[in-house]
Amino acid sequence: MDALAPTAPVEHGPSLRQRLAARGFDAVTLLVIPAAIFSLLLFVYPFAFGFILSFEPKAGGDWLANYKRFFSDPFLYDTIGNTLRLAIPVTLLNLLLAVPIAFRVRLMRRQRLLTTILVLPITLGTVLVAEGLLNYLGPQGWFNRTLMTFGLISQPLKLVHNYWGVFASLVITGFPFTFLLTLSYVTGIDPALEQAAATLGASAWQRFRHVYLPLLMPGFAITFCLSFVQAFSVFPSAVLLGEPAGITRVISIAAATAAFEEYDYSMASAIAMIMGFVQLAIVVAVLASRGLFYRGPASGAKG
């Protein structure tokens, strides 16, 4: 009789898949692994390798020799100031130009067409833009020849192979990126907020100052940081349109010189680390200051 008694069902514990899902490792999460491996190989490992290499001077000795050499040689550490004198004004100008244009474009019917035209320079690349400026703004370029033809100048203006040539190139190549980011933030704010302010008698400037600006400041801070990093890494424009041994000797040129002329990869790595830390300091300062303008949630944005 005991043999015919029903056996109790065997209770199985949760499967491996269920246990992983309970800890947040489901099929969707596992898709992140290839991206994480890619980031590790492409960004993290090279940074770690360069950071360690910067403390291994080519001539041996003091592990801080590369950094001491950089900050003791004006020809090297002046490149930080040269780069900032280009990157910060260019970033501010691009942002100041992008804001009113973005506000105007968002109200136009042919917004896509105009946006395409404005971002077209981003497809050209820095080298092609530099070559174009050399032909257009050079001593025998169209701009100078036109001015001389109409008798406005007696000799060509020096607009390339100096600070302004590099400045113009960075504005042309950086504006499309800044404009697209600014347009995305501007169009993300609910127009009802502006309409309500206008109903209460606020002028256009008051609506921008008290409604739009507080909501846009977090976006402006991120746009500034991304545009600044892009301008700070200037290299082709500084070589082709500037004075590589003078006022436009930026920090990237110093790193390239150490790596490919002196074959001192340790020193080049140290300069690259300094370059990264300077950018990081500016980005942290800008992101930390955005809370001074707006501390609440951006509840006026769509979505």
UniProtKB/TrEMBL annotation:
CDD domains: TM_PBP2. InterPro entries: MetI-like, MetI-like_sf. One of its GO terms (cellular component) is plasma membrane. The chain crosses the membrane at residues 27-53, 86-105, 117-138, 163-186, 211-232, 270-293. Keywords: Cell membrane, Membrane, Transmembrane, Transmembrane helix, Transport. Its main location: membrane. It is found in: Cell membrane. This is ABC-type spermidine/putrescine transport system, permease component I. It comes from Microvirga lotononidis. The lineage of its organism: Bacteria, Pseudomonadati, Pseudomonadota, Alphaproteobacteria, Hyphomicrobiales.
